[in-house]
Design brief:
The complex is a heterodimer of chains A (259) and B (318). Chain A has 259 residues and is an alpha/beta fold. In chain A, the strands form two sheets. A nine-stranded mixed sheet of chain A has the order 9-8-7-10-6-1-4-5-11, sandwiched between helices. The longest helix of chain A is centred in the N-terminal third of the chain and has 16 residues. Chain A starts with a strand and ends with a helix. With 318 residues, chain B is of the alpha/beta class. In chain B, 29% of the residues lie in helices and 27% in strands. In chain B, helix 4 crosses helix 5. Chain B is elongated, with a radius of gyration of 21 Å. The termini of chain B are far apart. The chains are: A alpha/beta (259), B alpha/beta (318). Chains A and B meet through helix 3, helix 4, strand 7, strand 8 and strand 9 of A and helix 5, strand 7, strand 9, strand 12 and strand 16 of B.
Chain lengths: 259, 318
């Protein structure tokens, strides 16, 4: 089975994030870049599927030069090869442009499964997997808490508000995974050394045959008019418990008409 | 005035509160028109939509819409958009809602904004991003604005309208029928409200110190008719199930009241609850960053403060 895993480099989950003053895009220099956490679960799931059967895992990313670190991380976890779409013209691409670019890079490469994390911790839109499925005309089996891929079909448990749906599709298919699906491995020392020798294909938008007019900030179908830091919240009342802390909260809730 | 389409979400045939919120918002942008996608439409559901401002109700009565994942709903909405030529499309910012918006945007060449907390009359959407630390105003600049709106962002309004039923027949394409739902499993959820929609959320974190400790959190939640949430520290430790995680890698909630117990308030957690209207904090560490968000806070041991609070609430309820 040949599996693509799409990963994204994002600002460290624990860092404060901000927008750039000049073009209102995410300030990627302001914090360390890490692999989007949910994408680690997608890499892990791909590795588990190929380890249980056989096959190849190719990690795919779109992002600036330093996003190569994220490809390397996935390779050190055990992925076999990488594809890095990197081009100044991609800066400021919105979700629609990103999904177009990824779909073009992914198509015609014979992938049976295309895996994603269900959401990135920076933009948090959760839309790119569905958009890629729409572009490629492939089945969308997303928000999976369990994935079984066998031969020519995939069956997942799709997390819903009331529980989960069992969903079946034939391959190839687009899958996104949620956090509870597995526990991602840490790269071993051996894995880190081996990753250095694994092939990474670097593509410009020309190499990938992409239409530049559909990419970047100027092609975005939404625009930011303005942004501002949330005004600091007016300081609330904080008291130290002297044996009546619970009663004091109850009084506050009562004043606020919650009780 | 242009129609503003509102995709209706329903559970067991009854309209969810979030859809009534979206109708109220649509009323400030144009003429609200509800869109019902699925086989279980009823006159009662229609009456609820009309009472809350739906001038028209487009009904696509087809099991295909719910038997396959997302794609058929996006197709049906695209067809209705084609004929109704709406000013905007509003969809609830749920996992599925955002996916429908995603596919609809690709299909119709329209820009999409997710997780709006408000939409102004000129269709500028307000988003609260990066865990609520930044407020962004943005607009769709191509096609018909497709905007997903967070639950609890606006209040439903009673505003009786005609609610004229318009039946639409949609031929779902084969490409949209590639991912088939073969079974639905409803998780036992007890009597508590759904976390994402609850008006009050009571959460526990590292300070709860074990699965057993969640008993006091649940008791407080039940005294208030609230949902229970947990920080990532608590779900990662296995003290409480993952689906109740509030935070950057979990659910985002925006209730009227959020009570954080034994939660330090790392960015990871704040990202999921910072837009809560009122925040109450119980934590024994006076330096915990969660106190910066507190409208009312108590520095103390949650195992004495929380049970006392629960008793006091039960007493006051009589």
């Amino acid at each position: 089975m040949k599996i693509a895993v799409c990963v994204k480099q994002v600002p460290d989950t624990w860092a404060e994030k901000k927008l750039r003053d000049d073009d209102s895009t995410l300030d990627r220099e302001a914090a360390d870049g890490v692999m989007n956490e949910l994408d680690e679960y997608a890499v892990e799931e791909a590795l588990r599927i190929t380890e249980a059967d056989s096959g190849e895992v190719v990690v795919v990313t779109m992002g600036p030069e330093r996003a190569a670190e994220t490809v390397r991380k996935a390779l050190s976890m055990g992925a076999d090869a990488g594809i890095h779409l990197v081009d100044d013209a991609l800066h400021g691409s919105d979700a629609l442009a990103t999904s177009y670019a990824l779909a073009e890079v992914l198509k015609d490469r014979g992938f049976d499964l295309i895996l994603f994390g269900s959401e990135s911790t920076d933009a948090r839109m959760s839309v790119v997997p569905a958009m890629v499925a729409e572009h490629l005309g492939l089945p969308q089996v997303t928000f999976a808490q369990k994935v079984e891929a066998t031969g020519s079909t995939v069956r997942i448990e799709r997390l819903t508000e009331y529980g989960y749906d069992t969903v079946e599709a034939s391959l190839p298919a687009v899958v996104s995974v949620v956090e509870k699906i597995n526990e991602p491995r840490y790269p071993s020392f051996k894995g880190i050394m081996a990753a250095k020798k694994k092939p990474v294909e670097t593509l410009s938008i020309g190499d990938a045959g992409l239409d530049a007019s559909r990419l970047g900030l100027s092609a975005a179908w939404t625009s930011v008019a303005e942004f501002a830091a949330r005004p600091p919240k007016a300081a609330g009342t904080v008291v130290t418990d002297e044996g009546d802390g619970g009663v004091k909260i109850a009084e506050y809730l009562s004043e606020q008409k919650f009780v | 005035m242009a129609e503003i389409l509102v995709l209706v979400e329903a559970a067991d045939g009854s309209v969810k509160k979030v859809s009534l919120e979206l109708l109220a918002l649509a009323g400030t942008l144009g003429t609200p028109a509800a869109v019902w996608l699925g086989p279980d439409y009823s006159d009662a559901a229609g009456a609820t939509l009309a009472e809350h401002g739906a001038e028209k109700i487009y009904v696509v009565d087809s099991a295909d819409l719910v038997d396959y994942v997302v794609a058929p709903k996006a197709e049906a909405l695209a067809q209705i958009m084609g004929s109704a030529n709406p000013g905007a499309v509003l969809i609830a910012s749920t996992a599925e809602g955002k996916e429908i918006a995603a596919r609809l945007a690709v299909k119709t060449g329209s820009g999409v904004i997710t997780d709006a907390v408000n939409v102004a009359a000129d269709l500028t959407a307000t988003q609260s991003v990066f865990g609520g630390s930044t407020i962004v105003q943005s607009k769709v600049t191509s096609g018909t604005p497709i905007i997903t709106v967070r639950v609890n962002s606006v209040a439903p309004q009673v505003s009786p309208a005609a609610g004229t039923r318009v039946d639409v027949s949609v031929d779902v394409s084969d490409t949209a029928k590639l991912a088939k739902v073969t079974d639905r499993t409803v998780a036992a959820k007890g009597g508590r409200p759904e976390l994402a929609e609850a008006a009050i959320v009571v959460s526990g974190g590292r300070g709860v110190n074990g699965a057993d400790g969640f008993g006091v959190i649940e008791a407080l939640a039940d005294s208030l008719g609230a949902a229970v949430g947990a920080s990532r520290a608590a779900t990662d430790a296995g003290w409480y199930p993952h689906q109740y995680q509030v935070g950057q890698t979990g659910k985002t909630v925006s209730p009227q009241l959020y009570i954080a117990n034994g939660i330090s308030g790392a960015i990871q957690h704040r990202a999921g609850m910072q837009t809560s209207k009122t925040v109450v904090v119980v934590n024994k560490d006076p330096e915990a960053p969660i106190f910066e968000l507190a409208d009312f806070g108590v520095v103390g041991d949650l195992f004495s403060v929380v049970p006392q609070l629960t008793d006091e609430i039960n007493k006051r309820k009589g």
